Amino acid sequence: MNAFDFRVRDDFVNRAADLARLEQWWADRTRDALGIYGRRRVGKSWLFRRFADGKPAVILVADERAVASQLARFADQIADDLGGVRPSISDAADLVRVLYRLGRRQKIVAVIDEFPLLLPKGPARQRLLSAVGAVMEEERDDSKTKLILCGSIIGQMESLLAQRSPLHGRLQPLDVRPLTFGEARQLLQREQPADMVTRYSLTGGMARYLAEIGSGGSLRQRVCERVLDRQAPLFDDPRLVLERELRAPAIYFSLLEELARGEAGIDHLAEALGTQSPKLTGYMDTLREMRLVSAHRPAGAAASSRKRKYRLDDGFIRFWFRFVFPHQEDLDSGLSATDLWDGVISGELAGHTAQTFEELCRVYTRRRYGMEAPSVGGWWGEADPRYKPERREEEVDIVGLKRKRAVIVGECKWTTRRMPRAVLDDLETYKIPALLRDKAIKPSKEGPRILLFGRTGFSADLERAASDAENVELITVDKLVTELLSGESVLD
Predict the structure, then answer these.
(1) Which of 138, 131, 150 is CA-nearest to residue 89?
(2) CA dist., res. 409 & res. 398, Å (int)
(3) pLDDT tens, residue by residue, 35-78
(4) What is the rounded distance in angstroms from the CA atom of residue 106 to the CA atom of residue 154?
(5) Could you please report the per-residue DSSP string of 415-450?
(6) Does residue 122 sit in helix, strand or coil?
(7) Residue 473 is inside which H or E element, if any?
(8) Which of 280, 295, 399, 435 is the most core-located residue (most Cβ within 10 A)?
(9) What's the pTM?
(10) Longest dimension (CA), the chain
(11) CA-CA distance, 42 to 86, in Å (whole number)?
């Protein structure tokens, strides 16, 4: 078998930890197969191709066509490696058997991408998985094949790894996540730190989206050319990806469009959709399983607390549902991409980026103060009764806890003007007192350290106040980015 040639290997950057895990698995004597899973567009196929580069390998990619025709195509693809003998492959178990027998004389990599698409639904699925498991037991000890089963539907792949699965104990997991800000740096145009944060917020750390809009010209130009133009590669990409996995996509799309404007509770979502909260629970569970949406409780809240808000985590999906989805008909009817950018997006882009900025500020807090505050999140709750009805609820962007004690609080402002002294005053006068009224949170003896994160710096008045206070730290976006980029391993 010839060595696999990944011709765009020089375009592959980072994923150092994932590649190291693959190489360790390759070198280990284990006969276990590897299950690689992660969302579409996260970069799984490039990852296993980069790993296979230079190794004897066969890579088979399943799709949504009839299984029988796919298996026939795979048989044709494998025939050359069997000396021109076309194997008989009737199902996924036969395919796995052939791949193990390919490796009886030499060590090879065998990849079945989108493996779940080869499995039937219902009870027949479990029977076929049992057959696959039996083949693994029969064949792997006499084979040098290192088998990879890959998939993009996370729930299906996690079910293969679950304890009740016939493949449990025979399949090691490799969960491929979106790139962190530090990991994405080589795919981000290195201009101003604020521009890097904005571009990252539009991509969600997804490799495909980073490749399209992370660099290569001004952000306006890249988004107009690669996203907003009717012929652009990403113009309809989220719709195509989501409709492959979702039933009744209209309801999901309405939820995602609402969450694209900001995090929200289930009652708010139900009101926006004109339905009752319990009817949305299953939909939200599906979106969480897909890793599009996450649920968050206030810092200090018990796991059983029903007080939660949902957040749309994927930056590109959030951008698309906020700015592209509502205007697709207009763009189809002649609205120019530049007019949409200049007339709508440019004025609201800061609001989109603010959510990502807040999360990066929390990452900064965990990295710098993890020993002081092992638990970091956001908080919201009732305002101090002394200030009602003017202030009904308070929110604090960052709350760091240690044994339920509030040791860190912080505010994040992604605005084009310098942060005023009023932000500190508001935090000390209204927000911290409201936070400390929460029965789940205790005050620290010294009082909390205050972190203020600003996109464009701080007013002279705030800088003087911070210099006079030992517990107040001002963090610019330059300092934030420098910290987030430090210490990240990168593979060129």
Answers:
(1) 131
(2) 5
(3) 999 999 999 999 999 999 999 999 999 998 999 999 999 999 99
(4) 32
(5) -SSPBPHHHHHHIIIIIHHHHHTSTT-EE-SS--EE
(6) coil
(7) strand 472-476
(8) 399
(9) 0.91
(10) 84
(11) 34
Helices marked H in 162-263: 193-203, 207-213, 219-223, 237-243, 249-259
AA identity, residue 395: E
What count of other Cβ atoms lies within 10 Å of the Cβ of residue 148? 26
Residue found under tokens 């580069």: 53
**Which amino acid, 94?**
D
User: Residue 484 half-sphere exposure, CB side, CA atoms within 13 Å?
Assistant: 27
Query: Which residues are CB-neighbours of 165 under 8 A, at least 6 positions away?
Result: 129, 159, 171
Give the tens place of pLDDT for each residue, 201-212: 999 999 999 999
Tokens 């698995």 belong to 25
Give the separation between CA 475 and CA 408, rounded to whole angstroms.
14
Count CB-CB contacts under 10 A for residue 188. Answer: 22
Tokens representing 408 are 């860190």
17, 291, 36, 39: which is closest to 149 by C-alpha? 36
Cis peptide before 120 (omega within 30 of 0): no
| SS3 state of residue 295 | strand
- Tokens at 256, concatenated: 């995602």
Q: Are 71 and 26 in contact (CB under 8 A)?
A: no
Q: Quote the distance between the C-alpha of residue 414 and its chain's center.
A: 22
Hey, is 47 helix, strand or coil?
helix
Torsion over CA: 384, 390, 394, 397 (sign):
negative
Q: At what angle do helices 477-485 and 346-369 cross, to 10 degrees?
A: 60
Nearest partner of 356 among 366, 367, 364, judged by Cα: 364
Q: At what angle do helices 16-27 and 44-52 cross, to 10 degrees?
A: 50
Q: Is the pLDDT of residue 437 over 80?
A: yes
Q: In 3-state terms, what secondary structure has residue 16?
A: helix
Beta bridge partners of 394: 381
Give the C-alpha distances (Å, rounded to integers) separating 16 from 109, 110, 204, 488. Answer: 19, 21, 19, 10
Please name which of 410, 414, 399, 491 lies closest in space to residue 452, comparing C-alpha atoms. Answer: 410
